[in-house]
Amino acid sequence: MMRPDGTDLKSIDGMTWPEVAALREATDVVLFPVAQVAQHGPHLPLNTDVIQAVEACRRTVLRLAAEGIPVALAPALPFGHSPTHYAFPGYISLDPDTLSFVVRDIVGSLAKQGFRRFVIFNVGGGNWGGLENAVFYVHERLGVDVYLLGWFEMAPVWAPFLTTHHPDRGEHDGHAGELETSCVLAAAPHLVVSNAVERYHSPRYAEMDRLPFANMNMNERARAVGCWNMAEISHSGMWGDATAASAEKGNQIFDAVADALADHIRKYVLRRESNP
Fold first, then answer.
1. Is 183 helix (H, G, I), strand (E, B) or coil?
2. 58: phi then psi, degrees, rounded to nearest 5
3. Concatenated DSSP letters of the chain
4. Buried b / exposed e across 81-100, counting CB within 10 Å, b at 16+?
5. How many Cβ atoms sit within 10 Å of the Cβ of residue 133?
6. Under a CB-based contact definition with an 8 Å cutoff, are residues 131 and 103 in contact?
7. Angle at which helices 96-112 and 128-142 pack, to 10 degrees?
């Protein structure tokens, strides 16, 4: 499928079997996006995390292909573990064990065909338990190399592009705010409900800022104060300033994340020197 930017890239599920066979001969590396289906405020679609995961991985594969480095792109796994969104209609959540088994089966299927190195890119805070279990299993039982990275753990890469994220003032770009709205505007602008875009900074999340554990991420902070339901943090399911979002920022963020992912694959998966 040709993209608006003129690039054409197929994931494995969009290829014929002879095309996959040829790709397997060229590389044993698979980039595998994993996300979740859950609410992202009144203005973004439930598949926002899927959009982010696929677009970041797509740009990564294109960057490496331009250098003559082929990498297979697996179809995204859209479902993850997202029970904290149960108060908002539409969420689809897998039990962590189910998520682990599904990932194990997907990686195992591709491993039987000769793919031996898997980079899993996670965009879903609740997915970590299931993914870590799966990664340990496939590495130990199948003997494949697996590398697990996450979108939100890459905050040092994308945070510099945000203008409304000020934790010192209790203003967090937490969920469906400037970051994620910018990304959807860049990758799927027709899915943004522009007249529902809002700005909201959660007092409950500001309370989490007072915790003395500076290195805790958003999910860890929420658990530490006994918050297990997104509706307890925000009435609309979002917090941050989505009014500051733009497609330009989204493209800058995707490019920065893709650069970081490509660099990681060169350095740690392929053991090559990074591009200057």
1. helix
2. -60, -45
3. -B-TTS-B---GGGS-HHHHHHHHHH--EEEEEE--B--BTTTB-TTHHHHHHHHHHHHHHHHHHHTT---EEPPPB--B--GGGTTSTT-BB--HHHHHHHHHHHHHHHHHTT--EEEEEE--GGGHHHHHHHHHHHHHHH--EEEEEESGGGHHHHGGG-SS-BGGGTB---BSSHHHHHHHHHH-GGG--GGG--EE--HHHHHHHTSS-TT--HHHHHHHTT---GGGT-SSS-BEEGGG--HHHHHHHHHHHHHHHHHHIIIIIS--PPP-
4. bbebbeebeebebbebeebb
5. 17
6. yes
7. 40
What the chain holds in terms of domains, given with CATH numbers, is: 16-269 (3.40.50.10310)
173, 244 Cβ separation under 8 angstroms: no
Rounded-to-integer distance, Cα 272 and Cα 266, Å: 5
106 neighbors 137 (Cβ within 8 angstroms)? no
Strand partners, 31: 73, 119
Q: Is 224 helix (H, G, I), strand (E, B) or coil?
A: helix
pLDDT at residue 275, rounded to an integer? 55
pTM value is 0.92
Q: Write out the two tokens for 5.
A: 């930017």
Q: What is the pLDDT of residues 94-137, one digit of tens each?
A: 999 999 999 999 999 999 999 999 999 999 989 999 999 999 99
CA triple 258-262-267, angle to 5 deg: 150
